[in-house]
Sequence to fold (237 residues):
Amino acid sequence: MFGVRPETVIPGLPCRDLDDVLPFYDALGFEVTYRQQRPNPFAAVRRGGIQLHFFAVEGFDPADSMGTVVVLVPDTGALHRAFAAGLREAFGRVPLSGIPRMTRPRSKQGTSAGFSVVDPGGNWLRISAFADDGGGSADDRLSRVMANASRQADSHGDEAAGVRVLRNGLDRHADAPATERVPALVFLIELLVRTDDRDGAAALLAEVAGMDLSDAEREVLAGDLAIAEELAATLRP
Fold:
């Protein structure tokens, strides 16, 4: 029928204070479309087709939040780059651990590549592609290990389990080529940073830096090596 709008669902998410979450979403490129303080603190934000509503709860602890939203987008990589650029501009870095934080796009077992954002209210935005964007098709052994680790660490929030999966996988596939090992090592380094194992992260960063990589391998691994440099910067005093 003409003139009939499709159904729309807008999630309502808790937070401790609107001033906790709104600057964060501003950095992600969202516009505040409505805000009130009375009779109850409430705000609405929008970025393209993504709409979110927030309500403040006195005494709320973001660590206890169970708020979760699944967001489907055409290109997870493009959205992650836009979010990362906004966070760097607003806060000087992309938060990798604690609350808030943002993971990198990775394929998870049985899914296309995606990433997660945990906002200052402890709410999870789980970003996935409408269709497989190429992240889940890799056949090499360590890509499957990384997909499993990502499900544990990024989807379930169990970084310790992700660390165990990656360590076991790297040990089991010690003969894997550098183009497979480096992405897995960088993911492991990220999880060690997120769990505040600075010594473990520094040791693996030194291992990556000391690898004898050809020019062709460095070209293939350019993105992962750049992330390693960014992680190394988080460890510097």
